[in-house]
Amino acid sequence: MDSLEDANPSPSSSISSHTIASNDSIQPPVFGQTMRTQHFAFDPAYTPLNHGSYGAFPVAIRDYQRALQDRIEARSDPYIRFTIPELLNKSRAAAASLLGAPMDDVVFVPNATTAVNTVLRNLQFAEGDTIIYFSSIYPACEKTVRYVCEITPAVCRCIEVTFPIDDADLIALFCKTIRHIQRKGGKAKLAMFDTVITFPGLRLPWERLVKVCQEFDVLSLIDGAHGIGHIDLTHLASTGPDFFTSNCYKWLYTPRGCAIFYVPFRNQDLIRSTMPTSHGFHTSLNDSIDGISTITQDRDRFGDLFKWAATVDQTPYLTVPEAIKFRNDFCGGETVIREYCFNLARDGGQLLASLLGTETMQTLQDRPNQCCFTNVRLPLRFSHQEPLDKNAKGTLDAANGAKIVTWLMECAMYEYNTWIPGKFYYGAIWVRLSAQIYLELKDFAWAGGVLKDLCVRAQRGEWRSHAT
């Protein structure tokens, strides 16, 4: 991998001659263990089965980011003031191309939680306004909703959902909730939902939910944390959500601290401040503060607002074009990556379920669960009776389900050098594994052996020594 050019450019010159070297000849990508050892920085003793939480990025992207950081430290003022804005626009354009959106509608924030906070804290809520969300919402987002409802007249309505659920039934519940709010004299102001929910890892019919919002005049906020680089989003802008955010560091192979925030032009006036409020804010109280004009001459008002939202390391944002180039040059492009990961999630999940003697969580609708997650039930039986039925051999008390999950995950980490997310979900323990280009079926088979051993030990009661 080439380094950034050594010569110090003028402030307005192009950023860098650095690019990821392309393959001289087109060859099919080699995924699995080869990809892991050649392009990623994992400890050889660690088995990375949980890409969904924090992502991972190739060594080439790491080196590019570090080279950017070196350039910034060498000439901080000209680079930060003049060069970074140029690079930032290139990154915005690259990310926007994956959303089918114009660059002017896309900005960067550190993570999806920041974008969700930005929307919820900018909107004006009146008496009777309701924020709707599903019970599968990411916990940090639910807490944000609850907080906003504490400090504004807004109220929230959680739609309880048990997965798997048929798409039609989910849509019907959504519509029923909106109609109920309207009949009671309220207004469904905003609905928040995911592209792919965190747990269980399942894809939602987000496009149809957007259309329902449009029919009922409800603002739609999509938490697409598991979106860009994961599922096809090239139709996002044409689908027409009001607000959308997605973490680039989870599935697009950028460093952590990088997310896109999409707001179509029609709604950009609703977003007046970044989180935190910073240089791009234009006060409505006066055209100037201490004699300094607050009116920007930049036609890209939305981009200007987010261009400098306090001093942070913006280099993760600047790696997006290089990440996309890596995905094209070394992985065959977005379609090839999705096909491999979706198939591995399906086949790996089925293999793991077969080894455990259980099943995967299947969606009930006709379309398959097209995403990079698989959810597998562990072979542990739980009783909800008090006291526990002594005749049910090997049955565990459901009251201890969450404690057993914690024990299982921590044992997997400290004894087997992996992390497998799990949850006690409606009477059973389910685990969620991620499929990624650096994994293959043998990794899922290995996980099966780990989980079988831990389940035997859980039935013997070993988890009790860990529980407090």
Furnish the topology, listing elements before pairings.
Layout: H1 33-39, H2 51-54, H3 59-74, H4 76-97, E1 106-109, H5 112-122, E2 129-134, H6 139-151, E3 155-159, H7 167-183, E4 187-194, H8 206-215, E5 219-223, H9 236-239, E6 243-247, H10 248-251, E7 259-262, E8 288-289, E9 292-293, H11 301-307, H12 315-318, H13 320-329, H14 334-356, E10 373-377, E11 381-383, E12 395-397, H15 401-416, E13 422-425, E14 428-434, H16 441-459
Parallel strand pairs: 2-3, 2-4, 4-5, 5-6, 11-12
Antiparallel strand pairs: 1-7, 6-7, 8-9, 10-14, 13-14
Helix pairs in contact: 3-4, 5-6, 14-16, 15-16
Biased composition (Low complexity): 1-25
InterPro entries: Aminotrans_V_dom, PyrdxlP-dep_Trfase, PyrdxlP-dep_Trfase_major
Pfam family, one: Aminotran_5
Notes on the structure:
The chain is α/β, with parallel strands linked by helices and 468 residues long. It has 16 helices and 14 strands. The protein has a seven-stranded mixed β-sheet with strand order 1-7-6-5-4-2-3, sandwiched between helices. The protein has a three-stranded antiparallel β-sheet with strand order 10-14-13. Strand 13 and strand 14 form a beta hairpin. Helix 14 runs parallel beside helix 16. It comes from Cladonia borealis. This is Aminotransferase class V domain-containing protein. Keywords: Pyridoxal phosphate.
